[in-house]
Amino acid sequence: MSEMGTVETKIEDGVATIRFFHPKKNSLPGVLLRSIAYEIDKVAENKEARVIVLASEGEGPFCAGASFEELQAAQDPESGKQFFMGFALVILALKKCPQLTIGRIHGKAVGGGVGLASAVDYALATKKASLKLSELALGIGPFVVGPAVERKLGLGGFSAMSIDTDWRDAQWAFEQGLYAHIYDSIDELDKGVAKLSLRLAQSSPEAMAELKKVFWEGTENWDQLLTARAEISGRLVLSEFTSQAIATFKQKGK
Fold first, then answer.
1. Total-model pTM
2. Closest Cα to residue 87, out of 56, 114, 57?
3. Mean pLDDT of the chain
4. Domains (ranges, CATH) in the chain?
């Protein structure tokens, strides 16, 4: 498979499954982020797709977050901003598509992965789907994914995850409202995702689109907000603190 990762879309029985993969624990380089956003935007216009499932490959992490290589490669504030805009584009695509979106969170989610799990309309997970926001430890903070996470957890939950950067287990995420249901295994998760997505695919597209507008009320300024947040992250990623922190994290592994 490509070193930059892959994104594949399959539409069957009204369900569009967008599945991404990256060989480094499903981390997210900029090209892959933009590919995910592109696929969501494309499916949004497809009348055959009545519901969208966002998933990743493998039995390990759901998503290890930002690509360390690209974080280290940023040479100036603009290139840093453009990388973080990849996360903004995915979140905005999930927000703007008229279909309801389901997240299949089969394993751990870190940083930007937490942002993806928060930006879907309904997240289903396994009990192994722990999550953490590690950005502050890297010197950048969860600025771009923050609005999506705060929308699901509230300011208290988002603040706690941002400040202590500790792992939270799937049960915590369920109790906080980020996960709608947790399963004991990936097999059970897949059955749950299939059951819900097929039921939604038989529901009224117009009613679901109107309901989604209600879910996302108050986010009309997110194009500007997430762009401004990407600028903050793009500036901070150039710091010596971040450079050293990423080097340490790469040695230890995420």
1. 0.95
2. 114
3. 95
4. 6-185 (3.90.226.10)
